Every structure is written in structure tokens, then in C-alpha cells.
Amino acid sequence: MDKVVATALEAVADVPDGASLAVGGFGLSGVPNALIQALFERRVGGLSVVSNNCGAMESGLAVLLAAGRIGRVTGSYIGANKEFARQYLAGELEVEMIPQGTLAERLRAGGAGIPAFYTPAGVGTQVAEGGLPWRYDGSGGVALASPAKEVRTFDGVAYVLERGIRTDFALVRAAKGDRHGNLVFSKSARNFNPLAAMAGKVTIAEVEELVEPGAIDPDAVHLPGIFVQRVVALTAEQAADKKIERRTVSVPATRGSVGG
């Protein structure tokens, strides 16, 4: 089955207001920027987003966030996104913060058809006991807090029950993909992408290189096409557009110093 769609706009054409999205990426690595930009151009709003973070440096999900298109975020990192923090503290945005490993497993579990699982992460904290501020009232008070979760003991160790995550759509970015939707991710861009793809009921992948079926060694496939419904091939310019979040430059060694 050929799953290739001509453009990013066509690929997200049926994403409605209020949809839930699982979005791959970590920082600026592996972010499906073309698909996010297509949603922005379509003016889709009221979105519930599940992603490690919510964009940075005015790219990725930060584009939708700044435009007021996101109503809820499930993630594990706010980072240096000042607009994210502002909307959250002002009561404009509902935020469910989750331990990073738990978020990864909730996405994977949802995609694997596992409704819930037990983990020790968060036991003895507000993650399990409830009370984390999901939404502020804009005046410093908490308008909506997280509920308590079930905690059980196995072999003398306490575990908290976490639910698997399923979303209406998933947006991911891969280094290579074929027309059947089989995907290969490059290095750290692999991050949350396979997990987000598994969690979506309809998964859309933007790929830097589109190849024909059979061109990818089956042993090299990171995510099988069964999890992917649509594939969009990026242009050479889009594929090469990879921002750097923080540049670091080493200090030159002075003449006569060790190794100088």
C-alpha cells in the first residue's frame, strides 16, 4: 500500500480543532517541523499535545503554542520555553508533567494495546499522591490539580499505576522511510519518535529521504509501517533545516600549554 501523501498540508487536512496529538522530538532533534507548520497554516486550535517538551527557539510546537493553538500539554520538560511557562502560570494552558521514562512507557504501552502498567517512578511524590497543578487560576492559585493514582506493593516494593496513552493523531520525523511507512531514525532523532508513532491512531511521518519498498533492510527498520498511515517526503531544503539549540566553542589552547 502506497502511503505517500503529496504535501504536509494534505497530510494534516483532517486534523480537527480539539484533536489530541502525540509529537516526536527532543529539544530540536527529530521534530516534525513541516507537519507542525502545516497545522499552523490550517489554523487548527484547541489541541491536546503529548510530547517531551513544547518546542524551543520559536520552532517546533512553540509555533502552535505562541499562536494560542494548544490547550493542554502532557510532557516532561518545560525547559527554557518562556512562553510555555508564562501561559502555564497565567492559567491559559493545562499542563500534566510526567517523569520522562514514564511518559515514554505510557506512549509505548498505548501503542502496544496495554491499558496501564505499574512503575516505581513517582511513588512517594505528588506524581502518585496527587496535587500537582495542572492548571493555575492566573492569580497564583491552583484551579485544577492532578488526582491521586493507585499504588500497589509487589514483593515489598511500592508501584504507581500509570495509564497508556493513545492519541487521535501522531506527528513524527524520520531520516528515511519507504512508501509502505517503514521508518529509520537517525541517532538522537530517534528519541520519542517511534513511541509517539505507536500511540497515534493515525500516524503521519515526514521523512528526509523517501525510498522504494525493499530498499531498507528489514533488520534496519526502527518502526514498521503497520504503525504509520501517511508519509510525506521533505524537500532537500526542509531536510537540511536543522537548528542547533546551544552552540559551544572550546577555548583555544595557549601556546606552550599541554596539548597546545
UniProtKB/TrEMBL annotation:
The keyword Transferase applies. InterPro entries: 3-oxoacid_CoA-transf_A, CoA_trans_fam_I, CoA_transf_BS, NagB/RpiA_transferase-like. It comes from the Bacteria. It holds the Pfam family CoA_trans. Gene3D superfamilies: Glutaconate Coenzyme A-transferase. Keywords: Transferase. GO terms for molecular function: CoA-transferase activity. Belongs to the 3-oxoacid CoA-transferase subunit A family. PANTHER family: ACETATE COA-TRANSFERASE SUBUNIT ALPHA (PTHR13707:SF60), KETOACID-COENZYME A TRANSFERASE (PTHR13707). This is 3-oxoacid CoA-transferase subunit A.
